[in-house]
């Protein structure tokens, strides 16, 4: 196994964008592609590490950039959410950047364009649910501690991408009424959806850097992280056959 | 592989009871035990078939009887729910019969008493949640389209058995408010719990004999059946290490 990273600069509305392709260069030929949509901070080392975990499973991973080249923040930035806020205020622009990112993934030489999926964390979880809503051409999406509010545009139904929503039940950004609202929305939209609620887990449960007690309802949770990753693996295996 | 069935008669309050042990007699030595609590109709062929699937995975399966020897119904019975109704009216008696059933499973020669779990369908799903609530000595329980109302007795906390609740979101017997109620209850009780909501699935989603359209909200659902079985396998693998 030889896991390689390659910076990929690609176009789209408000671009250029800078993603990272992560693949096992010991494998031959096209393989299923999995796009990773980062959290509020944008593409960072942790996302490439997720890409490496996916590449080790035999997938071609692609860390997407929906903010634009060089637009990144950290938890210590004056406003860590500055770029996210722009897209939360323009969900159609987020959609179009997601579409551009999927196209960039499908253009990678080792990606089988007929077998792709997207996963995302926090804002990236919201993004991949939007990707499914908007008719993005992926077989399925997995949201980890995503946000559930519907976009302000109409979208085509039925939703064709399958959805797996991995949710910490105690997430203050997605309380029970948001869960029941999303469930009703996805059912109305004819989606094939599953929601895994993890008891005692809050927002950011996959994020090992998120210590408990710093921000109420935000914390890494080893059980939810491990179990949701396994569920994702099962889901991807089903998608790609 | 040589999957065998053996009728097991055992004692308990209101007994005798008649269960079925299902095991691979080609395997040597004790192995993890998985108890199956049947649906409203009581132990029947379908439960032993589930036992065979579990035995093929290397577990020692045990179909429990919480009604009493000879007390069984069919969908065509004048009152299919007659025995279930008795136990819904006496949840403490249900608890005690579940405890007797766990003891019977642990007494089986091929069961490793330190590694046991229980699964259940419909009323059996409710039963295994009660088993966890009441402090039953199993490592974990899996409810398939269970019913979520809490028993009328106080139970010790924290709940120590882990719970996986596999739920059809459209189940009319467990609407969204029952889901949020169970989540709150299990969180208060300190349980390690997960709830997998399956979109578009209703009650009895594992039951291949349940044709769609006969009873609103009740139907077999191949996706939910397959995915929840896989989730159960992952859960048992985690429990038994």
UniProtKB/TrEMBL annotation, chains A, B:
Protein name listed in UniProt: Dienelactone hydrolase family protein
Pfam family, one: DLH
GO molecular function, one term: hydrolase activity
Span of domain Dienelactone hydrolase: 19-238
InterPro entries tied to this protein: AB_hydrolase_fold (IPR029058), Dienelactn_hydro (IPR002925), FrsA_esterase (IPR050261)
UniProt KW keywords: Hydrolase
Keyword Cell membrane assigned: no
Species the sequence originates in: Sphingomonas tagetis
Top-level division of the source organism's lineage: Bacteria
């Amino acid at each position: 196994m030889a896991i390689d990273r390659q910076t990929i600069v690609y176009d789209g509305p408000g671009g250029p964008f800078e993603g990272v392709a992560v693949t096992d260069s010991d494998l031959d030929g096209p393989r299923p592609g999995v796009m990773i949509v980062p959290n509020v901070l944008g593409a960072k080392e942790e996302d490439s590490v997720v890409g490496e975990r996916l590449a080790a499973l035999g997938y071609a991973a692609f860390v997407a950039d929906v903010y634009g080249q060089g637009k990144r923040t950290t938890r210590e930035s004056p406003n860590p959410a500055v770029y996210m806020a722009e897209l939360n205020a323009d969900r159609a622009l987020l959609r179009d950047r997601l579409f551009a990112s999927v196209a960039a993934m499908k253009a990678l030489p080792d990606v089988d364009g007929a077998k792709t999926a997207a996963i995302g964390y926090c804002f990236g979880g919201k993004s991949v649910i939007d990707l499914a809503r908007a008719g993005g051409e992926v077989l399925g999406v997995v949201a980890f501690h995503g946000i559930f509010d519907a976009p302000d545009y109409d979208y085509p139904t039925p939703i064709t991408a399958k959805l797996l929503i991995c949710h910490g039940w105690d997430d203050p950004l997605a309380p029970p009424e948001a869960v029941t609202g999303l469930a009703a929305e996805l059912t109305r939209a004819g989606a094939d959806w599953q929601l895994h609620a993890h008891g005692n887990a809050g927002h950011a449960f996959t994020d090992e850097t998120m210590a408990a007690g710093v921000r109420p309802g935000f914390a890494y949770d080893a059980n939810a992280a491990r179990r949701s990753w396994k569920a994702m693996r099962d889901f991807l295996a089903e998608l790609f056959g």
